[in-house]
């Protein structure tokens, strides 16, 4: 299952798979890179099943990057 949510400052993607597959995390992160997406914060688990929750931005504008970094820090401070 893949869930994508577009946010004002970027995106949130959640991936859940019943089985953990070797190399899946690398494959997903390389896909983000090919799409020009930069992951600012991520949480992953590969024990028995696979889950990934990532917050990131489209790399295109340095002002958006700076703003998104501040937002990501704010999110992490809440958790």
Q: Give me the strand/helix succession.
A: EEHEEH
What is the total tally of β strands? 4
End-to-end Cα distance: 24 Å
Categorize the overall geometry: globular
Average pLDDT metric? 77
Sheet of most strands: 4 strands, antiparallel
Give unreliable regions as ranges. none
Give the CATH level 1 class.
Alpha Beta
Percent of sequence in beta strands: 35-45%
Architecture in CATH?
2-Layer Sandwich
Rg, Cα atoms, Å: 13 Å
Helix-residue proportion: 25-40%
Q: For the largest beta sheet, what order do the strands appear in spatially?
A: 1-2-4-3
How would you classify the helix and strand content by structural class?
alpha+beta
Number of domains: 1
Please, how many helices? 2
Reported by name, the CATH topology is Alpha-Beta Plaits
What does this structure look like?
It contains two helices and four strands, in the order E-E-H-E-E-H. With 79 residues, it is α+β, with helices and mostly antiparallel strands. Helices cover 35% and strands 41% of the residues. The protein has one domain: 2-Layer Sandwich (Alpha-Beta Plaits), CATH 3.30.70. A hairpin with a 4-residue loop joins strand 3 (37-45) and strand 4 (50-58). Strands 1-2-4-3 form a four-stranded antiparallel β-sheet, with helices on both faces.
């Amino acid at each position: 299952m893949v869930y994508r949510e577009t946010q004002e400052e970027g995106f949130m993607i959640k991936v859940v798979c019943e089985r953990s597959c070797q190399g899946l995390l690398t494959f997903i992160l390389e896909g983000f890179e090919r799409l020009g997406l930069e992951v600012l914060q991520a949480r992953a688990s590969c024990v028995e099943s696979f889950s990934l929750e990532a917050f990131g931005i489209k790399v295109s504008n340095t002002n958006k990057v700076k703003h998104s970094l501040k937002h990501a820090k704010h999110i992490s401070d809440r958790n």
